[in-house]
């Protein structure tokens, strides 16, 4: 069985493409990415920041950003997406787990505003789930704002068994990534009664 240890995860690099045919590079986050991320923060809309952090946040400083870039790949699997010859950084996401042995991880991700709705988030999450499985994760949990329809669609369409529980304006989405994704699972999900009234 394929496995991804912390060292291999920290060197992960893959060329792939979005469902619209755009070539992208998916690679492990690096310490030096903190400078590009620092420059990107002021370009992010309040809505994007709110959907990611569930609150209004001030732009973080370099030291705060380094918590996302200078990481232990035993407990965090963090990837970025680069575009084109300039290697423009347009998205970042991670799975984070309590210990190296834990089979449950929490997902977070962000695509910069100008590149949203172009299939980039889907590629990022697909790669995180696929490599996350090799890394040892069987279940992924994501907390998603109930108005974050792109993220909810993205998660439901990955092809993994998916359960969504609604409470107080947010969904806890649980995905079983233990097995290969299957088209049988696309848009097949279980949700709480509250979720069904959200019209998603
Ligand atoms: C949520 C987010 C990661 C999605 O990434 P993306 O690159 O914009 O999404 P994609 O283009 O891959 O599209 C994903 C799905 O959402 C749909 N979608 C994307 N943008 C949409 C929009 N504005 N309105 C409606 N549907 C949309 C796509 O059609 C696609 O559906 P499909 O899987 O059935 O084809 C990105 O929009 C983002 O970073 N948002 C702000 C931060 C955030 O919400 N992070 C997640 C926190 S849990």
UniProtKB/TrEMBL annotation:
Keywords: Transferase. SUPFAM superfamilies: Acyl-CoA N-acyltransferases (Nat) (SSF55729). CDD domains: NAT_SF. The keyword rRNA-binding does not apply. Residues 24-176 form the N-acetyltransferase domain. PROSITE patterns: GNAT. InterPro entries: Acyl_CoA_acyltransferase, GNAT_dom. One of its GO terms (molecular function) is acyltransferase activity, transferring groups other than amino-acyl groups. This is GNAT family N-acetyltransferase. The lineage of its organism: Bacteria, Pseudomonadati, Pseudomonadota, Gammaproteobacteria, Alteromonadales.
């Amino acid at each position: 069985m394929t496995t991804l240890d912390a060292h291999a995860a920290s060197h992960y690099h893959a060329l792939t493409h979005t469902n619209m045919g755009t070539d992208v590079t998916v690679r492990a986050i690096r310490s030096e990415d903190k400078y590009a991320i620092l420059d990107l923060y002021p370009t992010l809309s309040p809505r994007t920041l709110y959907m990611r952090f569930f609150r209004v946040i001030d732009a973080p400083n370099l030291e705060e950003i380094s918590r996302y870039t200078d990481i232990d790949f035993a407990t965090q699997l963090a990837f970025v997406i680069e575009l084109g010859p300039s290697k423009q950084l347009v998205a970042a996401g991670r799975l984070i787990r309590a210990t190296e042995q834990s089979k449950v991880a929490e997902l977070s991700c962000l695509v910069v505003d100008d590149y949203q709705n172009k299939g980039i988030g889907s590629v990022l999450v697909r790669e995180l789930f696929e490599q996350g499985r090799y890394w040892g994760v069987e279940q992924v949990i994501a907390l998603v704002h109930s108005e974050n329809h792109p993220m909810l669609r993205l998660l439901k369409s990955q092809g993994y068994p998916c359960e969504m529980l609604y409470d107080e304006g947010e969904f806890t989405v649980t995905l079983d990534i233990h097995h290969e994704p299957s088209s049988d699972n696309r848009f097949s999900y279980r949700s709480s009664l509250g979720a069904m009234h959200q019209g998603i």
